[in-house]
Design goal:
Distance between the termini: 49 Å
Strand content: 35-45%
Number of helices: 5
Number of domains: 3
Radius of gyration: 40 Å
CATH architecture of the largest domain: Beta Barrel
Shape: elongated
CATH class of the largest domain: Mainly Beta
Order of helices and strands: HEHEEEEEEHHHEEEEEEEEEEEEEEE
CATH topology of the largest domain: OB fold (Dihydrolipoamide Acetyltransferase, E2P)
Strand order of the largest sheet: 3-12-15-14-13-16
């Protein structure tokens, strides 16, 4: 008896489990309507909705990277070769324009100051000679040829002195002190822009030539997008268009930008052109130079009627919606209605033609069998 009771309970449990997992049953009688009980409607969390106006955009996909602007990157080299005697900065440090970076010493600096002091003395002598010869020429005593030679010698040496003075000025040295014989043993290299020191390629005691890059500064507040757009999409894009992008593989939200430059030359290897976009709200974006990005350029947008993707049913190369037809106390009747669809935008589908009924099943219809 106990064994029979256990068997009966087992069979009852199986039947109960089968009922709970049974998909929403639909019946399509001769009228062509689909019947759904209200109990099924509630248990499947079904919902009705109407076509709504949504903004659909025509997009051009791109890939690219985050780069500094042309004025936001500085590569540091020496105006006069010499030895690195002190380093005032370190990689990753934020520096302001004019901040001290390196102290440089060496024989070249000493020779430049010596040449300037000597040239200054020569200019004084030649100026005196020129003034004397000019005075004689004005009194018709001296020859005109001597005046020309004195003037040319004076002007040539003065030009040399002015050139040396500019070089010393660029090094931050006081030409007046040097002319008086007070030489500097070193000069200081300063930051040409504000930003972060990206790298330092030298050490104390190293002899550095004028062509060697010893440091780089990146202004993170000047970051922009460098985009690659395929040739087939060139005619669609123009400056001023909105851009949406995200960093590759980061999983973070999208950022906004604006197209500011469209390239005029096609890269023969990639068959694409390079464009530049200005990042909006850059300070709060937390982006890093060199990051790879991907996104879309919004080339056009318009407002159209749409339905959620879940409301669209596909069968035999056609698309349908299930429109409300009528209801009784226990049953809801739906009618399979063909619709014409267009673009997709996220979870929404454009309707190129509106169905006659505006009450559409928009949720929970995945178990309904449509033939």
């Amino acid at each position: 008896m106990k064994r029979n009771t256990t068997l009966i309970l087992f069979i009852f449990s199986v039947m109960l489990f089968s009922c709970k997992n049974k998909p929403a049953e639909t019946v399509e009688p001769e009228s062509g309507l689909i019947e759904i009980t209200k109990a099924q409607f509630q248990s499947e969390n079904m919902e009705f909705g109407e076509p709504a106006i949504s903004v659909f955009s025509d997009l051009v996909h791109f890939t690219g990277s985050i780069v500094p602007s042309v004025n936001g990157q500085a590569q540091i080299s020496l105006p006069v070769q010499g030895l690195i005697s002190r380093i005032h900065c370190k990689p990753g440090q934020l520096v302001s324009r004019g901040a001290l970076l390196f102290d440089i010493s060496g024989n070249e600096l000493v020779d430049m100051q010596k040449d300037f002091a000597e040239s200054a003395a020569i200019v004084k002598r030649l100026k005196s000679d020129y003034d004397r010869v000019k005075e004689l020429a004005d009194e018709n005593i001296g020859a005109q040829k001597e005046l020309v030679l004195a003037e040319s010698a004076y002007n040539a040496e003065k030009a040399k002195l002015n050139a040396l003075a500019l070089k010393l000025q660029n090094l931050g040295l006081d030409a007046a002190k040097i002319e008086a014989g007070n030489f500097s043993s070193s000069y200081t290299l300063k930051a040409p822009i504000s930003g972060y020191v990206n790298q330092i390629n030298t050490t104390i005691g190293q002899y550095v030539g004028p062509q060697q890059i010893i440091a780089e500064i990146i202004d993170t507040e000047s970051m922009q997008l460098k985009l690659s757009v395929f040739e087939k999409d060139i005619q669609k894009i123009e400056t001023g268009q909105k851009v949406e992008f995200q960093t590759t593989g980061s999983g973070t939200g999208k950022y906004a930008a604006k197209l500011i430059s469209v390239g005029k030359t096609i890269n023969e290897n990639t068959m694409s052109i390079d464009c530049l976009a200005e990042i909006e709200n850059l300070k709060n974006a937390g982006l890093v130079g060199g990051q790879f990005i991907e996104g879309e350029i919004i080339v056009a947008s318009d407002s159209v009627f749409s339905l959620p993707q879940a409301a669209i049913v596909s069968a035999e190369s056609q698309t349908f919606v299930l429109a409300f037809e009528k209801e009784t106390d226990d049953v809801i009747y739906l009618k399979k209605t063909e619709v014409k669809t267009g673009r997709k935008n996220g979870d929404s589908v454009e309707l190129t033609e509106l169905p006659n009924s505006k009450k559409i099943l928009v949720k929970g219809g995945y178990n309904i069998q449509v033939e």
